[in-house]
Design a protein that fits this description.
The chain is built from eight helices and no strands. It is mainly alpha-helical. The chain has one domain: TerB-like, CATH 1.10.3680. Helix 3 runs antiparallel to helix 4 and helix 4 packs across helix 5. The protein starts with a helix and ends in a 13-residue tail after the last helix.
C-alpha cells in the first residue's frame, strides 16, 4: 500500500481524487521551480530560509509572519504566488527542523550570491517579517543583527534600516 493511499489521498475507481489533483498541482509547481537557473534557485531558497530564520527566532512563526514572507518572496523572488507559497513552506520547515545547524551556512551562501543592495533589501525584509505582528521581539532583533553581521553589513546600515521599524521594537514599547 502506498503512503498516499494510507493517508487517504490515493485515487479510487481510476478517477483522480481531489488529493491527486492537489498533488499534481504541487508537483507541477515544484517542476517549475526545478527549471530556475541554479544561481537564481539558490538565491530564492536562501532568501526565504533567512526570512524563516528570523520569523522562528522567538520559537513561533505566526500567521502574519508567514503571510509577510509569502508576499516578500513574491515581490523580491519574482515568483508566482503558488511557487512562493511552496518556497516559504519549505523554508519554514527547514528552518524549524535544521535551523541551528544550517543558519550560518545558508546566510554565507546568500552573502556570496547577493550584492550590497540585495543584502540591504533582505535586511529590510527581515524587519518587515518580524514586524508583521506589530512586535519585533528582542530575540528577533538580535537574530537580525547577527544576520547583518554575517552579511558583512556595517552597524550604521543596520541602524538605518532598524530605525524604520522603531515603533515595533519590543524593547522600546511601554509595558501595559
Amino acid at each position: 500500500m502506498s503512503i498516499l493511499k494510507f493517508l487517504g489521498i490515493g485515487s479510487t475507481a481510476g478517477a483522480p481524487a481531489a488529493g491527486d489533483r492537489d498533488t499534481q498541482a504541487v508537483r507541477k509547481i515544484i517542476d517549475e521551480l526545478d527549471h530556475l537557473p541554479d544561481e537564481r534557485a539558490r538565491f530564492v531558497a536562501s532568501f526565504a530560509f533567512i526570512l524563516s530564520r528570523v520569523a522562528h527566532a522567538d520559537m513561533e512563526i505566526s500567521t502574519e509572519e508567514t503571510s509577510a514572507m509569502e508576499r516578500i518572496v513574491v515581490e523580491h523572488g519574482a515568483l508566482p504566488e503558488e511557487q512562493a507559497l511552496i518556497v516559504v513552506q519549505m523554508a519554514k520547515t527547514q528552518s524549524i527542523l535544521f535551523g541551528g545547524t544550517d543558519n550560518y551556512v545558508v546566510t554565507r551562501e546568500f552573502n556570496r550570491l547577493a550584492d550590497r543592495d540585495q543584502k540591504l533589501a533582505l535586511l529590510d525584509c527581515l524587519f518587515a517579517v518580524s514586524a508583521a505582528d506589530r512586535m519585533i521581539s528582542t530575540a528577533e532583533d538580535n537574530v537580525i543583527r547577527q544576520i547583518a553581521d554575517e552579511l558583512k553589513l556595517d552597524h550604521p546600515e543596520f541602524i538605518s534600516v532598524r530605525a524604520r521599524y522603531r515603533d515595533n521594537l519590543a524593547v522600546l514599547k511601554k509595558p501595559d
